[in-house]
Amino acid sequence: MDFEMRAEGVESCAKAILDESKKDPAAVSGIRGMIADLVKVDLPYALAIETALGERVQGIITDTTDNAVQAVAFLQKSQKGHAIFFPLDRTNDYPSIPEEILQKPDVVGVARKFVNSTEAVCKVVDGFLNNTIIVKDLTAALAMGCNNRTVRYVTLDGALLEPDGALSGGKKQGQVGIISRKSELKKIEEELIHIRQILEKLEMDN
Asked: Model's pTM, two decimal places?
């Protein structure tokens, strides 16, 4: 389900780039899409991933650095806002989190392993989440953060503890993030398919 079908919450600058890339590929070329549209996350982990990604959720992946420069020039000329771009030709390999940390009882897992997409897109996302661990709750994050100041800890309910000690969290009534909304819709679709299959089986049995 792409951004046109659930554009609520998407910044106007991201919409402008995605629209222009479809209307005039010569003017804005090499646009793969918005990160939120290019990844899939199972619903139980959607809020944690969304929190860990932050504003990068609406980042635009481009094929090359030249494509990103071209898109920035378009936004400057049209004055349609400020966007962040991630060229595929500037991705790197990142170090893994020590195994002993991952063996802690309240660790759910390395955040990047809960993101599904193409190999190229996952490599970009790995750059954001390579030092991020999903943990069960804030108590666990604070306890583990005391012993390791190089890892980010994000909880299943969306609190984030940074290596420098900064802590963020909270919730706004009625507000649902892009990835969370997308994951919820995916789950509903799967449930509807399951119900349809049950009904079809009942009809065949009668």
From this structure: 0.79
